[in-house]
Amino acid sequence: MNDKPALIQHLERLAERDDRGALAALRRGLGKPPGTVPATFPHVAPFVPASAQGRPQEAAYYMVASLFAQHPEWQGAGDFGWTFRQLGDHPSAEARFRALLECDAQELHHHLRHAVSLAHSSKRRAPVSYTLLLKHALQWDHPARWVQRTWASSYWGEAPSLSTP
Predict the structure, then answer these.
(1) CA separation (Å) from 56 to 10, 62, 110, 125, 140?
(2) Pair 9, 2: CB distance under 8 Å
(3) For residues 117-156, b (16+ Cβ closer than 10 Å) or e, as one string?
(4) What mean pLDDT value characterizes the chain?
(5) In the 3-class helix/strand/coil scheme, how is 29-71 assigned residue by residue?
(6) Distance from C-alpha of 70 to C-alpha of 47, rounded to nearest angstrom
(7) Spatial distance between the Cα atoms of 20 and 5, rounded to a whole number of angstroms
(8) Is the pLDDT of residue 14 over 80?
């Protein structure tokens, strides 16, 4: 059973087919409030659940789709803290990561756009788990701030062991 959201499956198919037109349309959403660029509608609207339509959560679908088009390397094994950890000692990584963790849902698209750009332009081209990114973006404003704590643990926590017990 595939547990990926339909939107993420669609985005991966676009990248696998190298559908440059669709990816370019989705990139037009970068730097704009999520869900405000009509070129993105055909590639996102069919995949937004009815429960999110017209609600603040809808923006997360548009944001993640545009970010995917910016950096379509999705083989990430962990959350966004893990992605940032892959950047190693990049000079601006920690400062950008801290700013990201401190932002609210309305600022999230701005901070993630810069963070994904950093992942894309780094020497290591750190992949992103867009499935987790979407899930976490939908929960960004949770009162317990569990997403931010999870990402922080992945970034600053103990590195996973490469050996198997």
Answers:
(1) 22, 11, 15, 30, 11
(2) yes
(3) ebbeeeeeebbbbbbbbbbbbbbbeeeeeebbebbeebbe
(4) 90
(5) CCCCCCCCCHHHHHHHHHHCCCCCCCCCCHHHHHHHHHHHHHC
(6) 19
(7) 22
(8) yes
User: What pLDDT, in 10s, does the model give residues 74-130?
Assistant: 776 789 999 999 888 778 889 999 999 999 999 999 999 999 998 888 766 788 999
Instruction: Evaluate whether 33 touches 109 at the Cβ level (below 8 Å).
Output: yes
- Locus of tokens 């590639």: 43
Place of tokens 């780094």: 122
Euclidean distance between CA atoms 136 and 160, whole angstroms: 21
State which H helix or E strand residue 131 sits in: helix 130-138
43-58, pLDDT tens digit by residue?
A: 999 999 999 988 889 9
> Rounded to whole angstroms, how far apart are CA atoms 34 and 13?
22
> DSSP class of residue 90?
-
CA–CA distances in Å: residue 158 to residues 100, 131, 136: 21, 23, 21
